[in-house]
Input
Amino acid sequence: MEKNTHIKVRFGERVRFFRKIAGLTQEQLAERANLHPTYIGQVERGERNLSLICIEKLANGLSVEIKDLFTFPAEETKNEKDELLYKIKAIVKEMDSKSLRVSEKILKYLTEIKGK
Output
């Protein structure tokens, strides 16, 4: 596989991965990202060269950071860990400052317990 094709395929896999975790159809993502549904399908199949603007639209539509779309973890760990991180980020985004402080303390406590 050609190198530039490989990155398009990997990028498309990440878009599909985050779309499915978010429980979105291609049409719903297209609406959220202000892109055409056909375009979303082409991106997911690695058939499109994307502009920076479209990458930003996709990240916003998926509620992820742009860098998340370019993070290609090892195949064996990507599904479970990425899915959990995505879900945690979605929960945290909705919290107020007080809840975030409490959550931080709980996470620190859990980390300390694990270290013992």
